[in-house]
Structures are given as structure tokens and as C-alpha cells.
Amino acid sequence: MVGAASSRAEPVVGERASARKAIAYTLLIAWALLMFVPFAWTILTSIKTRPEALQLTLPASPTLDGFLYVWDRIDPGLPQMFFSSMLLAVVVTLSNLFLGSMAGYAFARLSFPGRDVLFIVVLATLMIPDQLRIVPVYQIMRFLGLINKDPSNYLSVILVLAVSATSIFLLRQYFLTIPRDLEEAARIDGAGYFQTYWQVILPLASPALAAVGILQFQGTWNGLFWPLVFMSQAREHWTLPIGITQFQTSFETNWPPLMALVVIATLPILILYIFFQRYFVEGIAAAGVKG
User: Fold this and answer.
1) pLDDT in tens, 127-146
2) Which of 27, 38, 213, 271 has the highest Cβ tally under 10 A?
3) How is 50-100 classified by DSSP, letter by letter?
């Protein structure tokens, strides 16, 4: 009797699990499609004519005039803006990976007076918006002579974004999940703190480094605020986000080339995430395991 009841209950439980899974997948697919709608509309607008861009319709006569306009007529030139954005994104990302990993290792493994208080102060900087820091930061950069001067325009942005509290936090959380036995074995072999950090900890933290790298590259690549503050007068060093703003005036917005430039600016981030998405998910998931 008991065996018969169990055999009847198993199909019911299996059907319920399958139904829940089907509902979950349906909701996730619907949510993914909803998130894709703005990007799809951006692509459609980039191949519309200027009159069609103001209408909520599919392009009647698709054209690449928006892309050609961006390539031929934009000032200071698409290659130059692409180079400026790539230079800032790569340098700032590498800086955050190096400085953020060292700070995260110190907060996770080293014992020194005031460590926990200092870590709280670092996290507290996340609550201070950039707009609130603009005056003191601008004054410091002007004192150093790094405002709208060649080639120090890049240096001013790099110094402001060299290391972020988010990078330190994520890497510190991941370092806490690494067993201490590995470090103790390295110290027995005569390795110092930096050698342990460089040869033992960093190779094990590749998922966290990939996650931080993607987040920081994306944030810097899409960043408008600080490049606009420090490079507004240095037109030859404009980044892609600054270039996008020149299609919008007080009286009108030229939508097709604007959206074409948005599509072009999105491609590097999309390619980066496609190749490193596995490491990104692993790093974010592991960084929240231990506090």
C-alpha cells in the first residue's frame, strides 16, 4: 500500500516541478525580451530616415545614412573618439584591477589598526555622488595643471577613476572565500605578503578579476560626467559619450546618427561580455558568499 502511494505521488511531484520550471523559464524569457526592446529600437532607429525616426513604426526604407554621417561628418572623428574611449577604459580598468586587488587583499588578509573602520569609510564613499565632489576635485586638478591641457586631459580622468570602492569591495569579498591554508603554505616556503598576493591569490581570483574588469570597463567606456568636466574644451580628446551629445541641441535631436553612434559604442561592451560572461557570473556569485 505504501509503495503504491509513493509511486502515485512521484509523478505528481514531477509534474509540479516541471510546471514551476516552465513558468520560471517563461517569465525569464519575457523579462529578457523586455530588456532587449530598447536595444532593438535603437538599432531600428539607426537605419531609419530622419522623418521616420520620429514615428513609432518599423523603417519603411532602411538606410545606412546615419552610420555614414557618423563616419564622415562627426567631429573630432569616430576613430579619434574610439581611441580616447578605449585608452581611458583600458587604463582605468587595469588600474582598478591592480590597486583594487591590493587594497582588497589588505582588507581581507592583513591585520592592522583601524582596518575595519577604514573599510567602512571606503564603502561610505559609494554614497557620495560625483556631482557632490566636482568642486573640490576640479580645484585639485586645476592646481595640478591637468585641466584641458594636452596630454594631461586623460591623466585627470584616470586619476579620479584610478580605484573605486566597488572594485575593492568585490575583490575583498572574493579573497575571503580563498582558504588560508594556501597562504600559510606559501609563507612556509618563504613567500612574503606581496609574493603571496601576486603568485597565490591573484591566480585563484580570476573570476572576481574578470567581473571587476567587465564592470569597470563598461562604467568607464560609458562614462560621461568626468570626461565632460575635464575635456569639454579639448575637442580632439573627446570620448564617444561626449560625441553622442553633439547630436542633441536646444531645438532638435538628429536621431538616426545619434542611435548609430550608440550602436557602435555598444559593440565593444557586448563582445567583452559574450567572451567573459562565465567568469563574470562566477565572480559576482562568489563575491557574495562571505562577508
Assistant:
1) 999 999 999 999 998 888 88
2) 213
3) TTGGGSSS--SS---HHHHHHHHH-SS-HHHHHHHHHHHHHHHHHHHHHHH
